[in-house]
Design brief:
Radius of gyration: 36 Å
Oligomer: single chain
CATH class of the largest domain: Mainly Beta
CATH topology of the largest domain: Thrombin, subunit H
Number of domains: 4
Low-confidence stretches: 1-17
CATH architecture of the largest domain: Beta Barrel
Structural class: alpha+beta
């Protein structure tokens, strides 16, 4: 009997469920429609800012993951440098191998008073080292290891520090407080920092932690190339460290290897920095007779915009590029003469003594108004029917003389209402107006004589 009753009960329950469902649907139809949610109010500001659509990441930006593969690849070329000085004091620093024959780069201050030097490799080997050359002005030194088979040592690759950008990731490896091959990472905080330690200030600033014992160690980019030599920290702050750019190191290394110290190359020009911002340039104001610059055809008024294929924008950059090269080095110089680009090659020489330089002047001189002047040649004076005068050989771009309209080829005959027939008379005539006062200049251009007031720079 139960076999028949159970199916009947299930059918009745199903029918009742259908009745409930129909009732529920009817009640829903009778209810008023629920209001739609209001749209989010527009944010104030309109076009005051931009938001990246869909939270898209920056183009070409790949967040760093683990640095372990990079560290594993480069760490064998990083070394610990320990020195014994007078007495029993010991100095600890870092360094890195640049070739398999055992040449090591480190800081000059790490080895400057060393009586003996001991270098420990990442694999635990300890080798004696000697100083090949060092330069205090750049705080760089080159060591040579002894006791290892030639060509058997691990090395690092040197990169291109000119390609660094603020925000690039970097890794520092060294031996802070004697803790071998410690690794820190950070980014480039600034480039070409001047911190007042010498004429070759061109430091990379980084927030990768640098501590005592890191001195002389490598700063790596994300390719595993050395882009700097960690050198200094600001003791009052955290995360402010400095490294010598590796391109400066590469300029100096052949000099240290050949001479044991930095023999400074000499080009034979005087330079004045002109302009501001993007228009700033190193302008030649004087060329010494018989100098490498004179032999290369460099002229007063030329802008030096490149040395060895690298851009130059200031006097200090030009000084660094040239002074780090040894005498006898042939260097390519890129010039801008007016609107014409010119490339010349000059072979640097040793800088003559000051007494010698005084006797080999170029015969032209830059006065405070920014013009290159020389004595008017006698044949030109005769052609212009003048007793004498001072020839304007070149005008520095953006100088007071340039702004006043003075041009190359003009002949100055009066300065501050005093007749001048020779270059030697110009300084005394300029002094008549007083410091900072406008200079009244009379000049002849062709057959026309004119006056112009030129205010010297402060």
């Amino acid at each position: 009997m139960l076999r028949w009753i159970l199916p009947l009960l299930l059918v009745a329950a199903a029918a009742q469920a259908d009745d409930v469902t129909d009732w529920a649907r009817e009640k829903v139809r009778q209810q008023p429609e629920a209001p739609k949610p209001a749209e989010a109010p527009a944010r104030p500001g309109g076009k005051l800012w931009r938001e990246r659509p869909g939270n898209n990441p920056l183009p070409d930006f790949v967040p760093p993951t683990s640095l372990a593969p990079l560290v594993k690849a480069v760490r064998p070329g990083v070394v610990n440098v320990a020195t014994t000085n007078q007495g029993t004091s010991r100095s600890l620093g870092s360094g890195f191998l640049i070739n398999a024959e055992g040449l090591v780069v480190t800081n000059s201050h790490v080895v400057e008073r060393a009586q003996s030097i001991r270098v420990r490799l990442a694999d635990g080997r300890e080798l004696d080292a000697k100083v090949v050359g060092r330069d205090a002005s750049t705080d760089l030194a080159l060591l040579r290891l002894s006791g290892a088979g030639a060509g058997s040592l691990p090395t690092v690759f040197l990169g291109d520090s000119d390609r660094l950008e603020v925000g690039d990731w970097v890794v520092a490896i060294g031996n802070p407080f004697g803790l071998d091959t410690s690794v820190t990472h950070g980014l480039i905080s600034a480039r070409e920092r001047v911190i007042g330690v010498g004429p070759f200030d061109e430091f990379i600033q980084t927030n990768a932690l640098i501590n005592p014992g890191n001195s002389g160690g490598p700063l790596f980019n994300m390719r595993g190339d050395v882009v700097g030599v960690t050198t200094a920290v600001i003791s009052q702050g955290q995360g402010i460290g400095f490294a010598v750019p590796i391109n400066l190191v590469k300029d100096l290394l052949p000099n240290l290897l050949a001479n044991g110290r930095a023999e400074r190359g000499w080009l034979g020009v005087n330079i004045q920095e002109m302009g501001e911002g993007a228009n700033k340039a190193a302008v030649v104001t004087d060329v010494y007779q018989g100098s490498p610059a004179a032999k290369a055809g460099i002229q007063p008024g030329d802008k030096v915009v490149g040395v060895g294929g690298r851009q130059v924008e200031s006097y200090l950059q030009l000084l660094r590029r040239i002074a780090l090269l040894a005498p006898g080095t042939a260097v390519k110089l890129s010039l801008l003469r007016g609107k014409t680009s010119i490339d010349v090659s000059a072979t640097l020489s040793a800088r003559p003594a000051a007494s010698t330089l005084a006797g080999i002047g170029s015969g032209s001189k830059v006065d405070p108004i920014g013009a290159m002047l020389r004595d008017l040649p006698p044949n030109t004076a005769r052609e212009l029917a003048l007793e004498g005068g001072v020839l304007v050989e070149a005008v520095l771009p953006g100088s007071p003389a340039d702004l006043a309209g003075l041009q190359p080829g003009d002949v100055i005959t009066e300065v501050n209402k005093r007749k001048v027939t020779a270059l030697s008379q110009v300084p005394e005539a300029l002094a008549l107006g007083g410091a900072g006062q406008p200079v009244l200049v009379r000049y002849q251009r062709g057959e026309t004589s004119r006056y112009v007031a030129i205010k010297p720079r402060d």
